[in-house]
Structure formats: structure tokens, C-alpha cells
Amino acid sequence: MRVLLTGSSGWLGRALAPLLQAQGHEVIGFDPVPSAHTTIVGSVADRALVRAVIADGRVQAIIHGGALHKPHVERHAPDDFIAVNVSGTLNLLAEAVAQGVERFVFTSTTSLMISRRIRAGREGGARRAEWLTEAMQPAPRNIYGVSKLSAEHLCRLYHEQHGLPMVVLRTGRFFPEADDMAHVIRQSDANTKANELLYRRLTVDDAARAHVMALDRAPAIGFDVFIISAPPPFVPDDCEALINDAPRVVARYFPDYPAIYARLGWTMFDSIDRVYDPSHAARRLGFTCRTGFREMLAGLTRGRAAALQRRS
């Protein structure tokens, strides 16, 4: 297929473009920043450019991974998020329908599921971690989350009104940058990313694989939203203990982790406030991440931590 890939110069795009090409797809990269994987330099907020790109390229499928992200909140006005994340998505959807695009994959984020209440770790007055599935009603806490949720609604609307096959992927963390709250986290960046594989992270390689699977399955699925994150080892009954004593819970599932971490001078988070459940993606999309906390531990024992971290 001829696939339009937005965000082709970004962290996901650089992993996804070669994977799509290896699967036999022709990739048209679209990004404001030039790169080896970007054919068209420009913004999805430019409706005329979007129209020209789709028409001239005779695009058959769109993977819309381009966006302003949470790290941009401090540097961009809310208007910028609406222009790129909402209006840009609308531009792509409208032109996709007008020009006969066959399928659409939208990269969303689990970040939109985190309300201020969840960040506080409270449910009905009791402290507990939140077990998050696609069934929950999001109440985003910042303009990034609001803009991505709005774009999800546009995706659903265009599927319902026009029948455009559509898969929305709410991806967990896979960016290489340090946490934007790193100044209050006592763990190193590598330690933090390893811990996050327990409940809210995946590797960029797995994120790219999920998009390829979604592209293939979109016509059969029609429309659906999927959490994409490394499978957690936990169960919902662990939620109270996770927020009060996460190291004890993790040690119950991985008795060898304390010794492995001690050799590296690493520590576990004291508290885990949410767990993303990707089981719906495993059941309906047929996708499961290859790398999780268990694989990370195995890599640490074999001295492959650096290689695994570079792909997180």
C-alpha cells in the first residue's frame, strides 16, 4: 500500500517507516522537520498541503503519528495544540474521505486517561492505584490530553459518518527523553524507564509493530480504541498495595529483581498510581508487546540493559 505517515521525522516515525517499507509498503513521510524518512516537509495544520499530498500521492492509507506532545506544553500555546492535534487531524480525516483513502490509524496517548484525581491516587477517598482500561471515561488534565481526546472523537465521528476504517492506538510511554518531572524522581533515567515497563511503558520497536498490525487489521475492525503498553504482571486486586508499597508487590512477582537492581544501584518506585491494561489489544487487535519488565530483567542479567534502554 501507499501509506502517508505523519510524524515521520519523530522517534516513532524513524522506527515505523523502515518497518513499513520492510513489509512492502510505499511510505510518504510528512513532517515539519526534514529527515531521511520525510518526503513532504510541512504541517498537517495546512489543509491545502494535506489535500495536495493525499491527492498527488494517491494515498491508500494514513498513519497519523504527528502531533504536539506533552513536553511541548511548556513551550507552546493551547492554540498550537488545537491547530496541530485537532484541526490537523480533522484535515487528514476530511481529505482521506474526500479522496478515497482506505484505512486510517491514529496515534493517541494513554496520557489523556490521567485526571487530576488519578494523579492523586484516590478513589472514593481510599488510596489505591487506578486500573485503566478503554472503558473508563477520560478527564484529561492538560491541553495535550484534551487535544488528543478531541482528535479521537473526530476519528470516531468520521468512521460513523463515512465508514472509514479506523484504529486508535493509545500508546504508553516510549519516548527517549527523561520524564518531565525527573527533577523530583530519585531514580536515574534508565532505572525510571525500567520501572515504567511494569505499568505504563513500551519500547519504540513495539510501538511501531502495533501500528503495522493496526494498519493491517483496520478494515476488519472497523473502529476501535486500544491501549498499547507492555503487559503488566499485576491484577486489579494489587491496586491498593501498589500505591502503598510497590516494591513488595513487584518482588512477589519477580523475586530476583531486588538482587538485580542492587547490583546496579537501582531502586523501585515506592508507589505506582496507575496500571494500563492492554488486554483488549491482545484479544481483538492480536497485538502484544514483545518487551516488558520480565524481558528487561533478563536483559539486565545478560548485560543488555543499554541496548534495551535505547529502544525505550
TrEMBL record:
A Pfam family the protein falls into: Epimerase
Residue ranges of domain NAD-dependent epimerase/dehydratase in the record: 3-217
Protein name per UniProt: NAD(P)-dependent oxidoreductase
SUPFAM superfamilies (UniProt xref): NAD(P)-binding Rossmann-fold domains
